[in-house]
Amino acid sequence: MRTPRRVWLSWSSGKDSAAALAVLRARPDVEVVRLLVSFNADAGRVAMHAVRRELVQAQADRLGLAVHAVELPSPCPNEVYEQLMSAALSAAAEDGATDVAFGDLFLEDVRVYRENAMAGTGLGTLFPLWGRPTADLAREMVESGVQAVVTCVDTRQLDRRFAGRRFDHAFLDELPPNVDPCGERGEFHTFVYAGPGFAEPLDVRVGETLERDGFCFADVLRGTAGPR
Question: Which end of the chain is more exposed for a tag (fewer CB within 10 A), N or C?
Fold first, then answer.
């Protein structure tokens, strides 16, 4: 039997990452060994998703996976980002990884950027969700048991009232037709607190909602009162 490909998964803490992990874990030729997570080092949160570091660690614990953290300064010029990511890819190769997987769906420029960044590293790239129709994929995520809360809304593309909502069928039913059901163009971002592969759900609640620079952020906290 062939040795499985050892994969690091780029992990945003959101639904696409969780769906990508489920697809990868269903493949007999793949072993996901680590989550690769970029944090705003000053804020202690995942960039854009604004999810607290301790919640990402709690996700990893429930999934039985270790985290490799990339500490990004704020602000983070692109050349600094690329240097830090290059160091992370070197660490992946030293760890025996064969590939890095991403939860991207259809943005060609993003895929090309990632593939160019990986060139010369000796690591392959996997895009387990690539090309899936997002209207179908979003519903499949919900049906599969993915439970998530919307942590960030780009208010130039989607009304702020969607921040803090559950990512569920009701949420999808209410999305305007110009918004991608998976938020692939950055319309919204999510945090997954339960779903395939989780040993048990995370107890979370939605705290303060904050608007800044055209975005509305809903803070997710540990707690017993679930998302609305």
Answer: N
